[in-house]
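Hi team,

Filling in the usual template for the complex we talked about on Friday. All components are listed, including any nucleic acid strands or ligand strings, so the model treats them as one assembly.

SUBMITTER: L.P.
PURPOSE: interface mapping
COMPONENTS: two
RESIDUES: 560
SEQUENCES:
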Amino acid sequence: MNLKSVKKIAIIGVGFMGGSLALAMKRKFANISIWGYARSQKSYNKLKKLKILDKATLNLEKCVLNADIVILALPVEAVIACLEEIAPLLRKNSIVFDLGSTKKLIEKAALSYLPKEVSFVGCHPLCGSEKSGAEFARWDTYKNSICLIASSAKEKAAKIIEQFWKKLGSKVIFMSSGSHDELLSSISHFPHLISFSLIQLTPDNYLKFCSGSFKDLTRISSSPASIWADIFFSNKKNLINDIDGFVKVLSKFKEFLEKGNKRDVFNLIKKANTKHMSIK
Amino acid sequence: MNLKSVKKIAIIGVGFMGGSLALAMKRKFANISIWGYARSQKSYNKLKKLKILDKATLNLEKCVLNADIVILALPVEAVIACLEEIAPLLRKNSIVFDLGSTKKLIEKAALSYLPKEVSFVGCHPLCGSEKSGAEFARWDTYKNSICLIASSAKEKAAKIIEQFWKKLGSKVIFMSSGSHDELLSSISHFPHLISFSLIQLTPDNYLKFCSGSFKDLTRISSSPASIWADIFFSNKKNLINDIDGFVKVLSKFKEFLEKGNKRDVFNLIKKANTKHMSIK
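RESULT (copied from the run log):
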């Protein structure tokens, strides 16, 4: 299989991310038929009205039938459940990929559930929106963003999916699922945990005073509990590691403050200043 | 004294905050002569060029001489040093106020250094800019912002300074210096410490991947070490208290993750979601 021979792509989970993929594919792959699975009559009606798919269906089997590529645009646990469910429905030589926030557990599930004739490629586009739902989908969501692929760059299916993302304007970076999950804990999952914790600690009557800095740190504390509890558990080892590391840095600050080591506190902040300059 | 009888105001520290005050006063108090102290020939030349003062001078004594109000727009430690320096130069019945980020140490210094015939009013306008320097000063910096006054609302001098801030468009809130410092640790100083610590913990090679959430949490980690080491030490008791409180919340998350208590993690995040809704 190559990208040019693809005739049907099925999306399971047509929310903001899945919907944006549908719109982007419509622009970039004119001859591919894009199907989407609707879990309920209500979401079926919405998808029909939005017209972002060639075909919306309430029938999972029909949706996946003969699809060359199946995309799981679902939260981590739902990806895992879905892999088990669709395994017997998949066409030989088809490729399944997901967009989940952690990759190790999903990779393990794919290995155990999918038949050998089906390839799996774990993907994680580093983009998104605070809004959820297909009604907010945008064709350019993936343009100029980074997509991490949890695979060796040498795998044939991974190469095809790399071409797919490149066509959508994404920059692709390959890494192992383990490295991916460590990275994501650091740059996304643990920052969320910090944000949830900070607002938790702050007395209610202080919230009306909050300055720009406090607003910056707590903006993401509005991220939905249902999704984030899942993500935390799917990456719990790395997250606990980051909690431990962070407590160590805090203890250092505390020790220097208690001992009156102003030069040391200055140096810690100075290092942070310097590191901040390398963020793009 | 009342605001209408004020003829001369002296600003010590004409950077972004002091310069913005000069511009705002020029608009709102047409008949007051606004003097500013320049510490070096270089900053004297800059202030002359910017024309935001009626009179710039390199002579601290001349600057303060016969001023009805003296404004210290300096970092905390510099405010304390300056109080001692200007104490013998101040006119009877004049009012001194500062803009420092913590209020308890400054209040203590004012009590010990200033003569009884001079009133001190600790102020803290909750606004600012990432840019520093008088060249970025804006007349509307204080408009629609909150100014905390660390004093009883009944003090005569505090009432005059309240009028001053109101005239500039600020909303004034009175509280004790102790309450002020606790509040500020929570909503500003500790969030800065978190931001410095997070970027510290993050491996250098991860910084190129950083997502929106990571950028949010580390934006303020570029805040200058020289100012923030000072602020941390001037509010160290509250800061250590907040470090301890935060470590407790992190430990709770860790415990729930280790024990697999998904419902508890969900509830912690849900609480954060709810609290976030009350931020304006």
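MY TAKE: Residues 177-201 of chain B form the longest helix (25 residues). Chain B touches chain A through 78 residues (CB under 8 Å).

Thanks, L.
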